[in-house]
Design brief:
Two copies of one chain form a homodimer.
Chain A: H1 21-31, E1 40-41, H2 44-50, E2 53-58, H3 68-78, H4 81-85, E3 88-90, H5 95-107, E4 111-116, H6 121-129, E5 133-137, H7 141-155, E6 158-159, H8 166-172, H9 174-182, E7 188-192, H10 197-209, E8 214-220, H11 225-232, H12 254-263, E9 266-270, H13 272-286, H14 292-302, E10 312-317
Parallel strand pairs in A: 2-10, 3-4, 3-6, 4-5, 7-8, 7-10, 8-9
Antiparallel strand pairs in A: 1-2
Helix pairs in contact in A: 1-3, 1-8, 3-5, 3-8, 5-6, 8-10, 9-10, 10-12, 13-14
Chain lengths: ~325, ~325
Amino acid sequence: MAALTVSAASTSAGAPALPALSDIAAAHARVAPHVHRTPVMASRSLDALAGARLYFKCENFQKVGAFKARGATNAVFSLSDDEARRGVVTHSSGNHGAALAYAAARRGIRAWVVMPETAPRIKQDNVRGFGATIRFCAPTPQARAAACDEVQRETGATLIHPYDDARVIAGQGTAALELLEDVPDLDAIVAPVGGGGLLSGTAIAAKGVRPAVRVYGAEPANADDAWRSFASGRVEPVNPATTIADGLRTPLCPRTLAALRANVDAIGLASEAGVVAAMRATWERMKIVIEPSSAVPLAALVERTLDLAGARVGIVLSGGNVDCDRLPWQP
Amino acid sequence: MAALTVSAASTSAGAPALPALSDIAAAHARVAPHVHRTPVMASRSLDALAGARLYFKCENFQKVGAFKARGATNAVFSLSDDEARRGVVTHSSGNHGAALAYAAARRGIRAWVVMPETAPRIKQDNVRGFGATIRFCAPTPQARAAACDEVQRETGATLIHPYDDARVIAGQGTAALELLEDVPDLDAIVAPVGGGGLLSGTAIAAKGVRPAVRVYGAEPANADDAWRSFASGRVEPVNPATTIADGLRTPLCPRTLAALRANVDAIGLASEAGVVAAMRATWERMKIVIEPSSAVPLAALVERTLDLAGARVGIVLSGGNVDCDRLPWQP
């Protein structure tokens, strides 16, 4: 973490480092040349559904189709020249893998992405399209970690974890900074929570800029590990049950749990049917393509597990990468 | 056409009236409080597909989900108070019907929309949602015209034709005005052509503001009546063959044909497969929902029936109203 200045205020003995507002502001300056300043959109008919005034931060329009471009870019451009020369590695086959490949290409350094042999061709193509090297492994967490270690030993590449990394969290927080610049008088901000990188960065940024703002996570009831972890103060395991919001099937880590417990007001849950309905409503009313994870905050508002009636609410739409061959509302 | 000032320059003995640039500028001032100033979006990967630099005017984000809100609103707000008191009527069950209902609601006047008993429930709901009255008829052009006449006789309502109307054409042209304000140095603008209202307004506005700009129509090869009419100088009948771009299955009228012959450089054709592929690419790469008609200009560029290699090209995305239950690339 050479280039990251972690404020003393945000660390304590033994606790994992978290970015402060100043780190997120620095991240914003660092990533701005490389990522889109995404627009904020609104829709009266979605307002009516939610009973609130909604402002959608459209990270579905972001590079690689997801907010992940922010965190990966901040991490890659935070490396020293010496670190950068040895490249970066990660084990996410999803949006973070593509985002890291993108960021590495922007800096002109090498990237390795570990993914199971079973990963869909489109995910492989995404990563290769940015010039990254795929290292295949067996489809188990152990094999992934081993393959990552192997790449690091062989190459000296820096591991960039999808969320257990203060540089990544700082990058993800830049979306909330922009949202509050564009709509300063929000009462609340809601972001989906999987591993917690986006929600951590959002909460630290938002409370830093506007202490009165409330910050909420939204999670599928079928994957309520963040909700349980937030309540218990321990990282609880993910549910065996599945959810359509495939980006959110990830446990918190101690770092993101600490950020959430310090900065987040509550986590709202959404039913699977509610997520599908919110996703479809967003496509049909706002005319934008969002992935299921992006629809979870709206679903939690519509189902009133987050009751923000009448409030001015910012929602971070996490991404827009969907398989258009089959949509979740189709039989 | 009480409140429309048609410039002398744009009329000649016996020819149907067309708006001049000044009428389109007046229309812009008239509609601005009631319609969205839609954003202009770009996508490097769609640029690569087309071999040109593309600027998409996103009328899919417009009120009622289509550019039609502009023309209908200009027509409704051009009525004298006396005319307005008697209401408006049209016979389009598609986007224009909803747009007229919307505009009438904004002005607080009555609207009747004639549609066949077989019209899909969602189109009926759209129109009723704005408080308009549906007058059902048999599903033939004759029955539609008769029902329209009947409403006019009974109520004194003003017929607002979907495109054979200088006020409507002036309203549609306001999208191109905004596009050229946002991106002044375009080499060309492409709009889809059905009845020709959008393309007429686009061409008059664009050539008025920037005489050097080239203006093109784009049409499905399966519905090439505008292409044939443009060549022959007569309004040619629509093809019996069908197209996925259901908004473009409409013949020109003498008014729009005259506008096209005077202001449009060429019309490009697109295959059905090309339209579906362009629509899907726009959903997947730009993450926005567009209807098939909106994809026809991009398809014509990709298929090089409009060869604008290397040019800076504005594209008017006509709308985003799609049945998400079944998408055209799905079997």
